[in-house]
Amino acid sequence: MLRQHQAKLVFSGLLLTLSAFIACQLGDTKQVFDWLDVLGEGTAFLVAAAWLLLILSSRPHGRVTELLYYGSLCLVYSYFLNLLDEFLHYPDPVRLMSWLESLPAPVGMLVLTFGLVGWHREQRAIDRQLRGRELFLRDHNLIDPLTQLYGLEYLYAVLAREITLHRSNQQPLSLIVVDVAQFSDFNRNHGFSAGDNFLTLLSELVISQLRQGDVMCRYSGDCFVAILPNTSQVQADLLALHLQHCLQQLNKNHLTPEVNCLAVKVAAATATDAIEQAFVELAKLKRSAASQGFKPVAETQL
């Protein structure tokens, strides 16, 4: 995951290096050091730096990640200058370093707070998906151990129930199929560990963008299906476009596989027919995209 954020790591390193150079040019080395202050401020700097690395190593690109990164970077920057202040003395007329020490910390805390609020919302969405709202099917044997999503059996059971409700209440029902292109090649080139990590990130990202009533399941090794109750074809298509845009964040620098999203409106009488016809349409979409050189998001009635 850190490879996706190489630019951020380089920028952080250059910022700290430049700041250290400016501080050395403006200040003079102190004759006596307060090692207790050095220990305290050095620990604060290292902890903030560890937070920044943990954020970049565990999250894909996105708005929440940006907030968490820049908030943490402001704290790292402020604590770094505070640490340098224990070794350097600045002339009284030089106020620049004092401002740079003081201002980034409160700004960073504010930005980091907004990022944490966004992260909390994502986790709540993921938690709702994992807890589910179908209590009658709550069974750990139905959960995929890697992504912690429900699997194929659960998908068919919930879809069959939703089709029954759809036919009786005349409410629209849609699906979104999320397919990872050439996933076996990715596993072969990068290893199964990288593939597992990508699937986990993909599932978390999609779940965080779904609504409370939606249900996402892992259909197969490289394919996921989201059930969207009371959702028209137009609504499903808009959500699929949004997901496609979000999933492109996982493919920066072409280090991960491409992902296709297919939005469909369910009109079949059984769950089996709906799923089978969805994958027929997915195959057509992939052939069409390959011939045209791009990956559109399609809408289809099943």
Describe the structure.
With 302 residues, this protein is α+β, with helices and mostly antiparallel strands. 61% of the residues lie in helices and 12% in strands. The chain has a five-stranded mixed beta sheet with strand order 4-5-3-6-7, with helices on both faces. Helix 1 packs parallel to helix 3 and helix 3 packs across helix 4. It is elongated. The C terminus is likely disordered.
Summarize the structure.
Helices cover 61% and strands 12% of the residues.
Task: Outline the secondary-structure elements.
Blueprint: H1 6-26, E1 28-29, H2 35-58, H3 63-85, E2 88-89, H4 96-102, H5 104-131, H6 152-169, E3 173-180, H7 183-190, H8 192-209, E4 215-220, E5 223-229, H9 233-247, E6 259-265, H10 271-292, E7 298-301
